[in-house]
């Protein structure tokens, strides 16, 4: 007999999942409208929740249980009967509700197009917002396959909002995106090959007081994260990604986050566990008082 799906990240006992006292609200967003290669990202949020129930909640690096900050998982968003635009609006509206409760919204995807409305919502609360985008792909096309709402256009929409954008780990870029970069948009790119060669200079000075971080799991090397729709060789490694996020938390206040593009593989759960552990580490770094 199959176990029922997990509905709370980390499956903690009360009071750590109390929605009235939690400092983080997890938003499962099984959105999948513009995937162009391997489908399945709609199953990503549930796979992360299921894997999270098997994590040890003590963080040996931080000597602390991050779950103690209070992590509430709201019911998964239901996109039934919605077109892409309506689903994106519903996602953004949910993030606004979380922000109104003075909680940190942490969205689990789903495809990457879901990130634009949460970023817009967070930007309304924090006008000085900067965005850090960790990904294999630039996602700077004006449109893709006939839609400006595509996962391949998410960061172009961020630029359209007038938000300063830093992209890290990029190693897949189209001619259109290269031409766009010649127009001098407020975008700085740290290429994956620079990270691999040790020549990368991350422009930390671009971060404002408040930052939104969006992580596409294909930023990681496919040897460590195979369960993505469009894997690219030459990616980041686990501790490299953690070091990046830890440094972000040292330099700015992270006011919104998402982890997207998990495409679960049948009969193989290691990628689900990596994604769940990444979410937990991000919560730990964000709320730990003594990062060094």
Radius of gyration: 18 Å
Describe the global form. Answer: globular
Taking pLDDT < 50 over at least 5 consecutive residues as the criterion, the unreliable ranges are none
Structural classification = alpha/beta
Q: Number of helical runs? A: 8
Largest sheet data: 8 strands, parallel
Spatial strand sequence of the major β-sheet: 2-1-3-8-7-4-5-6
What is the residue-averaged pLDDT?
94
What's a concise summary of this model?
The protein has helices at residues 44-52, 84-100, 116-125, 154-160, 175-181, 192-197, 238-251, 270-287, and strands at 24-29, 71-73, 104-109, 130-134, 164-170, 187-191, 210-216, 253-260. By secondary structure, it is an alpha/beta fold. The chain has an eight-stranded parallel sheet with strand order 2-1-3-8-7-4-5-6, with helices on both faces.
Short key terms for the protein model shown above:
292 residues, alpha/beta
Describe this structure in words.
The protein has 292 residues and is an alpha/beta fold. The chain contains eight helices and eight strands; from the N terminus they run βαβαβαβαβαβαβαβα. The chain has an eight-stranded parallel β-sheet with strand order 2-1-3-8-7-4-5-6, with helices on both faces. Strand 1 (24-29), helix 1 and strand 2 form a beta-alpha-beta unit. The radius of gyration is 18 Å and the shape is globular.
